[in-house]
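Morning F.,

Quick status update on the modeling queue. The single chain you submitted on Monday has been processed. Sequence for confirmation:
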Amino acid sequence: MINFQTVTIADRERVNAVLKLSDFRAAEYSFANIFNWSKAFKSEIAFYEGFLLVRGGKKEKSYIYPAGAGDLKAVITALMEDAAMLGHPFVMRAIQAEGKQLLEQLFPGRFHFTALRNTFDYLYYPEELMNLPGRKFQSKRNLISRFHKKFEGHYEDITADNLPECVLMNEEWCRMYACHENSSLKAETCAVRRALDHFSEEALAGGLLRVAGKVVAYTVGEQINSDTFIVHIEKAFGGEYSGAYQVINREFAERHAAHLKYINREDDTGDEGLRKAKLSYRPALMIEKYSAELIIA
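Structure tokens below.
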């Protein structure tokens, strides 16, 4: 029997030790994401036979493809038994191409796989986000140039001293966009606030952008594996301060991800505007993800 429990901040070190074994780049394999979104997704974790297991769901539970090392077939079989005990169909998510291939080998014909485009992560080369080279990034450079002509912007890393200003800026951003009226934004607001409340405990990195002393943009992320930095949060008053998103994106990449191979800016959740924005930065690659539903018990 698998002993699933609520994830706590005290689990961070142990979770990270197991995640390191798989070295996945996908957003689901970050302790910060697991912990910060656990209330919204009703997530629980377990450590079982050398793997980290995550299940969540408000009604029927589903499972994240396991991270770790050991007998994967035995572990997934145990997850099937857990779902059966709950009386739920067995569904596994965040399965990358290599995982899909391995599941087909270990359980031939037993799963139906579905590509989940809304969950695909966007990966970029840090040097492109920093330098914005060539004609394909001309519009980004123009926005940054206009921002600096109009405003005297100042970047600084997030510290314990200025973190409360990011909290206040986030609250103002949410009022502007009526987060309480949108279930997705409401869940995101909860996750963001949790990240800011536990910023140092999660060992996150962050940067903010000021204009005339006011925080007009901020971003938060971390190194997720051996070669990738992941951006969890990016907020800006993009209307009044046009170009702020582009400025904070470039400044943060230069200071925190220049030494790595990729920057993961997570998925687009199926939001058309967000998808357009992320594609406009010309991703180096996408992390494709699938769900697997057990069709033959």
